[in-house]
Amino acid sequence: MNYDPKSLIGTPVDLSSLTEYQPGSVVSRMVINKKSGTVTAFAFEAGEGLSEHTAPYDAMVIVLEGEADIPVGGVPHHLKKGQMIIMPANVPHAVHPTTRFKMMLVMIHE
């Protein structure tokens, strides 16, 4: 479903419906974009992912659908629906889905 960003305020929303899978793509949708932090929904089609990178802020991944391998600082982690992981600022991490995969990324700016 395609939501108008203003319609999200004060309204219950099915988190998995914030982004839809697209063949051969990673789809993202900014839910909140404030100076203090961001919340972004992602949908990864099978075979897509994010290569190793760092971010200047702590970030939390919340798994909404599917499964993914998410290495953080060289330590492998396998996450499933309903799980979360916090990735510290400036520590290398990546997202390697093992199935179609949806996640919510919460990044706190300090």
UniProtKB/TrEMBL annotation:
Domain Cupin type-2 as annotated: residue spans: 43-108
Signal sequence bounds: none
Top-level taxon: Archaea
Transmembrane segments: none
InterPro entries: Cupin_2 (IPR013096), RmlC-like_jellyroll (IPR014710), RmlC_Cupin_sf (IPR011051)
One Pfam family, short name: Cupin_2
PANTHER family hit by this protein: SLR8022 PROTEIN
Designated name of the protein: Cupin type-2 domain-containing protein
Organism of provenance: Methanorbis rubei
